[in-house]
Amino acid sequence: MPTSHRAARPRLLLPTVFCVLVSQVWAAGSPAEQFQEWTADTWVNRQISLAALGLRSPVVLSGGDSRREFFLPVPAGVPIDAATVQINASYLRADGGRSTLLLSADDVPVTANRYTDDKGDASQRIDIAGGERPNGFVRLGIGWSSVISDLMCADQRAPGNALRLNPDSLFQYRYDRSAVRTLATAWSALPATPVLLVSGKSLSPQAYDTAWRVGVTLERAGKRVRIQALPAVGTTVDLATVRVPDSLRGIPAFAALAGGSGSHRIASAAETGALLALGRNGPLGTDLLIDEPALRTAMSQALDALGEQVRTSGEAATAAWDEWRKHNGAPLDVPSRQDQVRLGVLAGNPVIIVAQGAGARAAGLLGSLWRPAALGRDLTVTSANTPAVDNGSVLLDQFGAVSGTMDIIARGERVAAFDLGAVAGDGRYPSQLVLDVASAPNAGGEGPVLSVLLNDYLLGAEKLEANGNTRRLAVNIPRYALAARNEIRIVFLRQPTQIRCHDQPTPYPVSIQKSSHLRLGKGAPGDDFVGASIGLAGDHAVLVPDTWLKDAPTSLARMIRLSDAVGATGEHAQLKVVASGQKPDVSGHFIAFDVPSMSGGSEVAVDGGKLVLKRDSNTTLLDLSGLQRLTVAEVVDGGRGIAFRTVGSEAPDVPKPFRLARGNFAVIDEGGPTLQIDTADPTSARLADEGNPQSMWERHMWAWLALIGVIAFMLMAARIAQVRRRRQDRARVES
């Protein structure tokens, strides 16, 4: 039996003991003691699953020696404590032999288990050492190995011995919020699903604009933001996540929230204040907020009303409450200055506060380029702009840590992602990927094979010369391989060499040089989603109907997801609110959400649940009725804009990020795009022609040969005629 099974009973008791201890703590004490405990408690708890990091399906490790590494995010430069990883896994052993699971953290082995059964559970919990991680990640290593025979020269391949790692494996830790002293650190401390607090269901255009820009910046950073409106009296909230300490149930506002598990209608401002005070123990655990007058007033009134109820519990409770509010409930007591981004605390949680109207500058500051410079608690952002690409080349290191050296036994890769809008513009887009690489030979004197992929398209591959010298590989980027957001994968493959069968495979270095870059080429953007995304790299308009501002949490979430899908940024956009029944008037590039068609000649007509798609005025491609919860996207106005329209009475809620890449028309449901086509070229014949890798000479070889033959024939005929004329002239002279 594996070691993890022998320790299973104590591990199963841990959650029970933890719950008992927590319930005892929360059941004891008076209101004064509870507020004092909240004031003194500076720990912030975090948990994140592998699924939240993008792992959609189980990871399978098989064979003789298989390893994977996961980067678990933590606040950069902030000590963490009580960190654990719950590994949820199972194994199969059809090939027998010795199977071992080794778990490590930051290259330090933590635990190892040996398995002898044919199949079983490999789940276990491991402790992670505390301390700072300057790079903002804990590296979790999982190694699965199988030895079939003790004979050194035997075949050790074991395809039937496999480990299955489930996406619900969970990483938990805590950190001291007092160690978060800068906006850059606070950003790195955000959870995978941060909460952005706004004043209510209806927002002013300025607050709506700021919330949208901050939300898009979060999406581009890989976060799935949740827009939360501060509950007003008469609104309904879900109490499923609410935990009220027993010591506070004597206060009416807390008592109204205690014991509930369903919907609850807010009866007083004090109940809103109680939800704010509960923080992460309720639905208002806030990570970011938009500082606007309406939110300042509503929060102040809610906490004042709750304070009046607390004062009935005695002087000790009043003093403890006042102290708690001073340190945990007053992030907006002082209004933000214009263009200010600052760090505060709300209910024990660090919050990033963005001034109303500072959205564009905050988006620039909190973007990937300038975020490391946000080294302060209170910053006035006069300017934070991303510089334009001037010389036609962008280093790959601009998109992440690509350059460097790796020791490779069999396989190694580097991954970098970039938004098309961040590098394109002024009629230029990525046309070539240039890699400068070097490699050392293995024991057999052989070099590795380098493969270059963009969005899962293989652009090129080459066996490298193994002499340590730098070799430049340039591969062209076909236009169809581009998307609004792109992923570059650089893969090195070696054939492990063992001169003698008992030799152990040894890694040998390969290097990607810092000079590796993207090369931009001139070209027409095109009238598809990629072309429209290139246009969004510069100044553009964002058009929304005025009704969207009256349902801000729902419409903002949708607007942020769809903006990110086409590569829009919060830096260069201008929000325009379109009144009901009016057609927008806009010049330049734009994104439109549920607004009437402009002068660009839309091919899509939406009326409730009816969808009509035309190729031209005389040809209808699609005519459907009875559709619900769909969104259609269309490139309009000759590629200048992208229009999103809702089909049915409600728009779909799309939980996973996606990108629009192909065609000029897309249908989107809860799972993302279900259809992407080019209405002008439904069979993609143009794509097949543009994707032809043959050169102009190769494509038209027979025509070139025929032309050369005609020219050669004409030259020969001219020469023959010239010779005949000379002979005739000579004959005349002689006669």
UniProtKB/TrEMBL annotation:
The keyword Coiled coil does not apply. GO terms for cellular component: plasma membrane. Its main location: membrane. Keywords: c-di-GMP, Cell inner membrane, Cell membrane, Cellulose biosynthesis, Membrane, Signal, Transmembrane, Transmembrane helix. One of its GO terms (biological process) is cellulose biosynthetic process. It is found in: Cell inner membrane. It comes from the Bacteria. The chain crosses the membrane at residues 701-721. Coiled coil: none annotated. Residues 1-27 form the signal peptide. Pathway: Glycan metabolism; bacterial cellulose biosynthesis. Tightly associated with the cellulose synthase catalytic subunit. Belongs to the AcsB/BcsB family. Binds the cellulose synthase activator, bis-(3'-5') cyclic diguanylic acid (c-di-GMP). This is Cyclic di-GMP-binding protein. It comes from Microvirgula aerodenitrificans.
